[in-house]
Fold this sequence. Notes:
The protein is of the alpha+beta class.
Amino acid sequence: MGTYEEQRVARQRFDVADAAPVLLDAQGVVTSWTRDAQRLLAYAPGEVVGTRVAGLLTAEDAERVPELAERCRRDGGWAGLLTARRKDGRPVRVMVRITSALEPGGPAQWLVLLSEMDEAPGWDMSRTVLEQLVAGSPVGIAIVDPSLRFVWSNAALEQFGGGPARHRLGLRLADVQPGVNAEAVEAQMRAVLETGEPVVGYEHVDRLRSAPHRETAHMLSFTRLEDDRGHPMGVYYTVVDVTERHRARQRLALLDRAGEQIGRSLDIVHTAQELADVVVPAFADSVAVDLLEPVLRGAELPAGPLSTTDRVLLRRAGHQTVHDSVPETVVRVGDVAGYRAGSPPVLSLTTGRPWREPHLDPRAEEWATGGPGGRAATFLELGLHSVMIVPVRARGVTLGITTFFRRHRQEPFDEDDLSLAEDLVSRAAVCVDNARRYTREREAALVLQRSLLPHRLPDQDAVEVAAEYRPADELTGLGGDWYDLVPLSGARVALVVGEVPGHGIDAAAAMGRLRTAVRTLAALDLPPEEVLAHLDDVVATAAREEGVGPDAAAAASTQAVGSGCLYVVYDPVDGQCTMAAAGHPAPAVVLPDGTVTFVDLPQGSSLGAGGLPFESVELALAEGSTLALHTDGLLARGEAGDGARDRLRRALERPEPSLAVRCRTVVDALVPARPNDDVALLMARTRLLGADQVADWDLPADPAVVADARKEATRQLTEWRLEELAFTTELVVSELVTNAIRHATLPIRLRLIKDRSLICEVFDGGATAPHLRHPRTTDEGGRGLLLVSQFTQRWGTRFVPEGKIIWAEQSLTDPPV
Length: 817
């Protein structure tokens, strides 16, 4: 071959894509003949294998074989043009590349690649272009033999490490790139060799020596190379660097995970901890979320960055780490997180701007104050080398800071990492601010709730009581159901249960208005049906004044229109119980023997809806009977009528050690974990006053009987050992009996009741209520009730079907007047 032609071949890049591979031994004997070689020269494998390669060349080129063999041994290979003879004798000009395929411990072998030269015009240029596509491609390309040793690679593969192509020959991937997880890559190669199925788009993630501390990702594709008999000759594979795409995908996955896992509750600390849990260890090795003290209380904060003169008090709201020695883990959630004045955390907090340091000074002390031992550790001692501090800001308000650390195992934080951290923290900041606002609103709502529902039921001796309340709105804990116990005159009590349509703070506000009205009407000592009648007027009047009609009850969330109420009065002197209902279920009664019955109570219309007058029923309850007053939510599980009552009956029949336990057990048995309706249950076990606690006398309408009444009252006080109340009691008896004789009609009856107070009652048949007068100094009379009001704890009048009762109470614990 001439010098010009050799130079032209040397300038050309070999076309690997359509080359026919042939294997020779050290003596130049053909050991492998492929289908491509047969297609090129028309010889069958049986005609060539075992013969010398010189027999396939023209006589001129056959003489050059010893020279070419020497050059191959000296240079490790050769490339050039030769003329081969086809089986039919026709000469074929071929491009030849010879490469050593020596295996350690094995016989010497040479890989010969043959490619036919096309002398047509323009073919040299097209082959050059094709060669440039392989050799100049940014895609790394390599061929390994069945032992997974490199036999060829292009220059682009060098950018992935391992040195020049000539240094790879005969070596395996683990030999040229020790930092790579070669086992995983070679496992893919072996699978391709065994199955023949190509692998396209295999993503390999690793840390290479060429990129210390940096995670890299490469996309690899593998194809098996075969001889003419279909036997595997090796694997052809390509490598593409997809690190940036891999990192972008990781960022998106982290943002998606943050969107799913941050803000799942309205608890501030829980939300802060969710942020820390999401980013460790995928993004950082240690994360601390520190929030301002007012944020955790739900308080309002000034907009904009904090002033440098402000006293900054931070509390740890969340932290996560892969190593417990990091100082952020020393401060527990809820403890004060202090930082040195002028330190980056304080500056980031006060300026509202993020701060990043890719390479921390290893000799510098960490910024936290109050560390163990009194000495701040250096970043080198803690193994920390890179940090980011991102202020937690939402709606223009700085709520705290989030600190991200990386240890030795990860690359330093870069600008992309800071951008991702800001995205993560901004998402969490909105959730934290929502939780802060919710905390503030919930605290306000709970204050309202505490002011509307009784903190504890009043002490009295008429009944033993227990109550259970379950709101449907589990977030605010507010609802429209309510209960109450109101002490009445004569040692009696009023038991009340009601419900307002709707849930939440609007329903709670309407319930508070209704409860206040009930307590006001109860103070008038009216019968149950009259209390409900007046309550109905109050609700209807308020609805009319605000333009809400009965047919718009569903939209009147702040009104009590459509509410239900059950009002029960129990008298422990005789065990009589009177009750009336307005659109509310009748109570159940558990008799002393455990039998459960339901009161046959007429159902009046809901409050404010209009309808027939309310009716009451009266029944006598044996001592130890239990009234169970409840709202609709207790039975709201789909059953209606007898089915719902049967469930309640079975729950009430279960024996429990105390009334409080029974009350809670009944609600637990009947109410689902997340009720659709508010639930209130008030249980009252009746008591009777003993015969020795009540004394009464029938009196004639004779003024002379007043002195006898005083004597009887004094004698009874002596039996009760209440002599210190004799003076006031004689005054009260004298004035009330005298007024009854003067202004009322028969019968007249005096009754003393010793309960938690001393109660004096005078009954008469009149229907006119007495009035308290303020006489002038010159008036001779009219001071009786004024004296009674001054000397007793409280007094009043209540009407009964036969007349009225004027009563007065004296405390048994306060000193006598």
